Every structure is written in structure tokens, then in C-alpha cells.
Amino acid sequence: MSAIDYDIKQAAVEAGDAPRVGDLENMRPLPRISVHAFCESEQLQQVMDRCANDRRMSKVSLRITSGSTAAAANMFASTPTPNLIILETRANPQNLLAELTPLAAVCDPSTKVVIVGYYNDIGLYRELIRNGISEYMVHPVSMTDVMAAMAAIFVDPDAEPLGRSIAFIGAKGGVGASTIAHNCAFGISNLFSTETILADLDLPYGTANIDFDQDPAQGIAEAVYAPERLDEVFLDRLLTKCSQHLSLLAAPSMLDRAYDFDGQAFQPVLDVLQRSAPVSVLDVPHLWSEWTRSVLAAVDEVVICAAPDLANLRNAKNMLDALRKLRPNDKAPYLILNQVGMPKRPEIGPSEFCEPLETDPIAIIPFDINLFGNAANSGRMISETDSKSPIAETFSQISHIVTGRVALKKAKKGGLLGLLKRK
Predict the structure, then answer these.
(1) Keywords for this entry (predicted)?
(2) Cα torsion for 212, 394, 385, 382, to the nearest 10°?
(3) What angle do CA 71, 72, 77 make, to 5 degrees?
(4) pLDDT of amino acid 14
(5) Are both 332 and 228 inside the same structural domain?
(6) Cα(368)–Cα(346) distance, rounded to whole angstroms?
(7) CB neighbours of 212 closer than 8 A, spacing ≥ 6?
(8) 395 and 415 belong to one structural domain
(9) Is the pLDDT confidence value at 159 over 90?
């Protein structure tokens, strides 16, 4: 960062208008706003295209136009202005305010304007802020810079932080993704004394209520089918307490209706979950539909669970490829290999399984029919059944990884887990 860059950012802090530039993982989703960007360079157009594909922009109506400030003024002379206009301009400091005058004459009073300019001039920055410009950024800018500027304008700085959402899904049915999700939710709540909500999204066949020996009268069905009533108070009525820090949003596990949902059906549930608890664990059924794609695109972390056979390898590869496209600005989903070493079953070795996936597993869980069977039949978690077992320790380590409490190093081939560095 140059000295001039520092001066501009310092002036923004002094003016109280500095965007909170941080990594995208910790950035809140932007609210339902309209944004129109006018780009003079291909570089900014590419940045705006990346913004349009980011999950934190899912509610934003973004339009990108190749054009100048004059083009913006001409367009909005006959159409209403959006909530935010992003303008790229090469005008020098002496002419920039004059260039903006025609646009100012047609802008609605509530419209915010962000300028991307080419002159690193502290005097220009202060003059623009005094004249009502929301932010001035110096070219080149990154996607994080643009989104942070929008968040600084439209996200309430005093809003409660959003909880972390973690989705578990199996590469194939029967690979134990639900069991892993339930044990990780239990581990997160116990290990960190963190309020955690486990949401079972498999409405017809969910097993979370069985695994925790619960029989709630209400659960996730009431939340999905009554989005107009859904808020933190209503959600609290639907939750079942499983332990001191773990609550369950159970599936009805009944076949009295067809469970067909549109693409955004679970988004209100996810929004309320993130406002209600520091961590939400989502047990996502092995489906590939509009609503599962929507959930997987919106959460903070995705964990794919797979068994070491060819069908799982194919499905895991397809899911990883699809999710990398759905979530282009997020890190790749985590991978867990489960049921490894099942007697008399030919299987693909972990290194051969992971090579075409271009990712290493964060855990390799061995097949142990007695431990898992006893836990399931008694309605208890692995750490409750045998707290000293290596598998219980593995679930503890997974809980640390998916909540971001460790830095994961490259796993050793054939090892249970890579070296873990606790934060």
C-alpha cells in the first residue's frame, strides 16, 4: 500500500465512511437492493461480473453497463435511479465534480453513488465525500473492495453478527452423512459451549429425532410451510432441546404428504437460523434439486461425505465441480471419507480416491459397526457411547475444522487427519 493509499483510507476512517474491508467469509449478505454499475474498463466489468456470481449478492439486483458518467446521466434522465450507482471515470480531479453535475440533477435523493477513479488524491476524496458521494475508490479495485463498500453503505454496522452455517451432504445415499452431521453438531455445542442448532432438512426420512432419542410434535415442516410467521420467536417454539447447548429442528419423518419445494423454500429458515445461533448445522438429504442447490450455495461451509467406492467417487467429483461453480469465491467444500475398511468390500484407497477430486479429506473414518450401531440404537452420540475412542477424537477434530478453529495443513497420505494447528 502506498503512502497516498494510506492517506485516503485514513481520511475515510476519520469521516466515518470507511468500508470494513475484510475477507469475504466474514462479510454479511447484502440486503435486497438495486445496483447499476457503469464500467469504462474491462477490468472493472470483470470484477462486477464476479460480484454478481457471489452468494452474498443473491438478493441484489445488479445491472452492469459499459459506459461513462454521461451514459448514466442520459439513462436516468428518463428512468428511476437504483439504490446504488457505481461509476468508473477517468476524469481528473479538476473536472470530476463538473462531470458528475448532470447525473446529480437526475438522481433520486436516496440514491447512493460510489466512484471508481484513477487519481489517488486525498483532496479529491474529501471534496467528493463533502458533496454526498458515498465512497471513492482508486482503480484497480478488487471484488472484496467493491462488496465491502456496498456493505458499508447498506449493512447496519450495529446489527448482530450472523451465525455460521455448515451443510453436510452425502455423495451417495447410505454413506453416513446424517450420522456425521449429528455427531459434529453435538461436538460443536459441547466442545465450545456454543449454542448450536441442528436442522434436519430430510423431511420424509430424517433421522435426527431418532439419533437424539426425541419425539417433538413440531419442527422444520412448520417453519418451511409458514414462512410469513417465521422469526426468532416462532423458531424457538419449534426447537427441541437435545443438550445444554444443542437444539434440534426436527423433520416430521412422515409420508402423509409430498415434500416438493421451490428453489428458495428454505432460504427464510436459513436466514432465521443464522440470526438465532452462532452455529447452524444443516443435515441435507442426498438430492440434487433447486432447493438443495440453493441451500448449498447459501451456507458458509459445505461438507461432502463419501464412502470409498466408484459411485461415490463419480458423485463426489460431480458435486465438487458443481459447487465450485455455484460458489466461485468460496473455498472448496470439505471432504470426509466414511466407512473405510468395511470387511469383504473392495474399495478404492484414500489417495486414489482423492487424486481426481483434487482435494484431501479432512477426516477418514473407519468402519466400526459395533460403535455406530450401539450409538444409533441407544439414541446417543459417539462421544457419549465411547468418549475415548479414536472416532470420537476424529469428530472432535472435524468440529474444530468446520468451525474455523484450526488451520488445516495438507493431509499425509494414508493418515487419519492432517496436522492440525489450533488457533
Answers:
(1) ATP-binding, Nucleotide-binding
(2) 20
(3) 100
(4) 46
(5) yes
(6) 16
(7) 182, 240, 242, 248, 379
(8) yes
(9) no
